[in-house]
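Pasting as-is:
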Amino acid sequence: MIPGATLLHAMIRGAVFYVLLFGLGAASLGWNLMAAVLFPLLPRGLGQRWGRAAISRIYRSFWWTAQATGLLRIDAGALESLHPEPGGLIIAANHPSMLDALLIVAFVPRGVCIMKAALMSNVFLGAGARLARYIRNDTALGMVRGAVTCLREGGQLVVFPEGTRTVQAPINRFMPGVTLIAHLAQKPIQTVLIETDSPYLRKGWPIWRLPRFPVEFRLRLGERFMPQADHAQLLEQLQSYVAQELRR
């Protein structure tokens, strides 16, 4: 039997969490309506800088508020060292939950995501993603070309080599692509290791189902891999390294 005070505390935390999610949705919707207006008006370079910075600030505000209310604990300060780095960089992370991209982009303001083509017409995401020049994945060739162009322009490309959220511990088998992009663009791959104690928003977990609070996330920088002509071999090395680090 749950004591009355404990039950009340849990109900309050749950209500606050739903308010935060509603606020994130409202902020995303508001920015995307503004981005839809700005997209045809701003020059490409200015638009993508504003677009990426705005998305980063929205997500960072959400994480800050969630931490301030005691619902989340996030250790991601190590990612801030990536922001001032000149030149393009691939940020390759494992993918335990649906929140991973939001976490990384919040702390990497120059971050560029690869998105499902269908999401480019989503009212909460599409216009902002187009303004930020996020990359569509509707065709493999177009995605690779877009990623290489982004990196050569100095973007920091956020990728999840598993392709989907982790279902087989410690990681799913990596999909080909990330090391090919690194080779074509001649840019390094910085690994990011995401660790969490919660199953929240893992594969099959609906967004409205509450987790046990506080939810903890730790994001740490792993080894950096230089591009290789034998990108298939590099992919195996990358997967082996990330799996070994997550088993520790």
